[in-house]
Amino acid sequence: MGPRDPEEPTSRKRKRPAPEIGPFVLRSLLEDLPLSADGDRDDIEINCVEFLDRNLYVGTSASEILHFFQIPPDPEDASAKPSYILASRLPPAFHEPPTSARPGVQQILLLPKVNKACILCNWTVTFYSLPELSPVFGTTQIRQCNWIGGIDLNLDPRGAEQDGKSPAVTVLASQNKRIRVIKISEDPRGLRVSVIDFPGSMISVRRDSFACVADARSYALLDVDRLQKIPLFPISSLDDSPSGNVGGHIEDISGNSAGGLSRSTSSAQGYPAGLSDDRGHGRSTSLGAFMSGGSRRHGPAGGNDERSGRETPEGIFRERSPSPAVATLHAAQWDLNSGQNANKPLPIPPTVSATTEAPPPGSVPTSAPVYLKPHIVSPTPQEFLLVTGTGPRDPGVGMFVNLDGDPTRSTLEFDKYPDELVVDGRGVGVDPTPTTMDGEEEGFVLASMARDFMEEQRYGIEVQRWDLDPGEAETEKFWLEIPSPNEAEQTARIGLRSVVDLGDIYFDEVVDRLRLKRFQPFAIRSMDASILSLHSVDSRTAMSLERVSGERKLFESSDSLPEGWEEHRNEEELQFAQRLGHCRTHLVAWSGKSIWWAVRNPLALRLDSIISAVIAPRIPNVQTYPSLDRRKLVELINSIRGREAKTETEFLTLGYIRQRAGLLLFLSGLDALASPLSELEYRITEDALLEGGLDPRVILALVPYLRNEILEGRTGIWIHGGVKDVADGFITNSIPTDNPEVMADSVMSDHILHFLRRFLTAWRKRKGFGSIANENEVFKSVDAALLIVLLQLDQSSSPNGPKENSVRIDLYALVDGGVDCFERAISLLESHHRLYPLSHLYQSRKMAGEVLATWRRIIEGETDEGGDLGDGEQRVRSYLAKIRNSALIEEYGVWLATRNPRLGVQVFAEDRSLVKFQPAQVVRILREGAPGAVKDYLEYLVFDKSHAEYINELIAYYLDIVMTKVEESKEAREILAQTYESYRALRPPKPTYRQFITDNMVDEEWWHSRLRLLQLLGGSQGTASEYDVAAILARIAPYTRELVPEVIILDGRQGQHEEALKLLTHGLGDYDTAISYCLRDGSSIYHPIISGTMARESLPSHEQQAKLFNFLLAEFLQIEDVSNRIEQTSSLLERFGSWFDVGYVLRLIPDSWSVELVSGFLVSALRRIVRERSETMIAKALSGAENLKVTASLIEEIDAAGPSIEAES
Fold this sequence. Notes:
Low-confidence stretches: 2-16, 257-364, 526-544, 618-623, 737-747, 1089-1093
CATH architecture of the domain at 38-236: 7 Propeller
Helix content: 25-40%
Oligomer: single chain
Number of helices: 40
Strand order of the largest sheet: 1-26-25-24-23
CATH topology of the domain at 38-236: Methylamine Dehydrogenase, Chain H
Structural class: alpha+beta
Strand content: 15-25%
């Protein structure tokens, strides 16, 4: 089945059957029926078919009913089809028609509710019992009957009466002048008859008491209970003959002729008088007028309809036949215009009267009327679908009317006027009824017709939806032809019928496509070949593939499954899928000698046929890279996007279609001969595969570079059979290549890599979902493959590209988040020389030792392709502060201290570290593992933490460094001497010598160590900092001229202040330091003073300071440079004159000096003397006053105490 395509050549259709993409397909019910009893006739045709309770009834044009009995298939084999045996060949009784035309069995009406069957054969109705078709009701017949039917479609044909009465069914039988309303029950005399005055009716469909009927020219609505009629519209729109019956007049259709069930008596059908008063009044275009006289009634009215007798005479249903001439004329006109087969004439069109009036003289002859076969079906309980047209070879129009006769929906268009018409499905938006509760929701109308294909007329079935508004969705029509290779059957009419019982159809194709089968990628092609290919693509990973193969074999061989488990699993999957292959239908079609079920095309086959229709192999008989119409495949995927499944079968079908369509699109992207997929197509492929839930290992199996990352697990990979066929075909027909460039271009292009990156990343987000089978193996495979893809992409990406667009972010997110394939990930990162991501992988498992070991490898120079570690030593230091493993901290702290002592010391000195070490412990550790870092740690303890107990040890380190340098390097000694000369050459004001050597620092360790040495030697850190002055002096004794500041400090420590001041004044020329020496008694002269102050208790006494200043004055007066001598002496006396005795100074100052040189000192000294004299006088006066105050107080106390007498004892 496929969409309409009249232009397709017939020859092509015969060579290649069209894909069954339509909503219905034909499946064989019975073939090669023995229509002829003797087998000598080929002109016998099937006229009608019915099916009930495994009984198949076939009416033929030879006036026979073939009764077949169904033999059910083997219950153990769900796919087996039933067989049929011919139970009987029944020639129904009939009255000889007035003409020679004998259409044969025209109708088979089954009434399972009362176990009766009504057979219309050659315009004669006879009655039989079910299922064996034994005659009932004696010799009762209805002669000259055009049709029989009109069963209430609102009632279940098998249901029992709810009120407990014996079951009965009401049917309508059409005769030339009236319609008989017959109520049939199981009673052997169960026939009751009433009459409706409606001549020439040919078909009827009834809902409750409302029947839609048609005669040869027009349609009408009848109220069977009230016996009212309203005409609707003509069958042929070209029928312009005058008629007073069409146009909306409500007419009385009650009959007055006798009717009953007795041979000897008859009576007219009686109705209440009140009802007849309302008939025939008013005009209306709908049956709404039926409701004006009272509520609707559901059954015959009145009590006079139960007349009965022991026998029913044959003539009780007999109508007068039309004259032979008129009957022959009408039959010929119907045959000519409708194109019916001569061997299968339809009922004789009715005549208004038994005679034909001659046209009046002078009248103009009119063209013969166009007679079209009327079609009436009822798709819903409230609607009828009627077909009109202009001619049998012209298009037809379907019109919907409700029970009131009003149009309800948009019209339907048929390409040709139908021969037969049936509907299926309750319709979207239509409330279900008890009879349609289990039916499909979508509503379809199937029309049998003949269409022209090129110069050939072919018969088929046109299928379209009746429940869609053409304004909302474009109506799509499908053309269905009988699946017969017989050319004669292709040009034979197709009959359609909705049978009473449902038939079961089994679709092997659905089972084959939807059942799960084991997919074995490594059994299809040799794994050794895959490894060989991978060796040629990337030798870095080759060394780990053999290990992966061994691990896979070991993993899959452990905990072996019981013998025969795979066969058992296959059987279980088959049994499950067999439920999905069962469908049911009540539609049958026939043509020639064959009968088919017209069944809903399963969604899996329908959509799969669409996929198959867009695929064509690029190389004949080779499906490696199928060439397909991507646009149509994308349209298919989009058509089911977001579609919610309503049944289990639909859920599995949609998943399967998404998987197969997405897989084919992906394979199309692998085709090097085709244009690459666009980004949108890759996104659609990704969404289809993810929404379909395809096992990602199937995609990995299609990429040789990733195939060896698959872990099948103990039970393997199970996927839909249709998907497995596609994957197997690709892998089997893949042509291996030893050219790595070709493989890289065709398999691992950036487009495919980015697709795999998104697809696998999306799959990783499903971790923990309980619906994923073999979760452990799936995500191990996914993680390993994603890691390879990201490594490959990162290798080809620009290292300086935008950081937010780099795949490196995804790479680190993958390893940071942890992977299930931990050991495999280690191998991959090692083989790709990506050590820093490897450290992230270890960190995801909290493996601090491996993290540090990996960083150490990078720092020590091992290749790391990414180069993302940055300042590795600093990273190690920071990391050690965050872990609690003291052994690791000690190990890598010592390693770092060996490489970078200053940074390594910070590991043990970090205040924020989670593990604290005692200083003594650290010193011991460093002495054993990193001796070169001990000094740095001691500096930290002394200068940062003020641990004075380590000063002596640190002094020893500094002294060793300085002395080693001075002893070994003449250049160093010259540098020191030069600094002294340079400093002495400076004119005041000048910085101190310490500031001078700091500003003019030599960037060498010994120079820095000397500065720190001076700071420690000249500091005042308390008793804990007392060092061995004599030992130090002995060490530096050979180089006292080069180490002048050190000698000065040591002299001060020994109390040799005069020597110290002499060196400061004459050896260095550092006058400011000399003054500081006097003020501080020689301590802390090279130690930085915080905030420029010292504690008062740490200062020497005024007398001691005065003594030192006297020494300094004597040295200043001996400065060789006269101007410098005068300047420094004058400044000293003026600034610190209060520490000098005037007489002493005057004695020391040479007589040759002018008074002006010391005027400042003298003025300040005199002022000081005057101030001291005044202060002395004031103090004396205050002391006298205080003495008087004390004396007066004593006298007052004596007076208060009074005299006392002391007697001698």
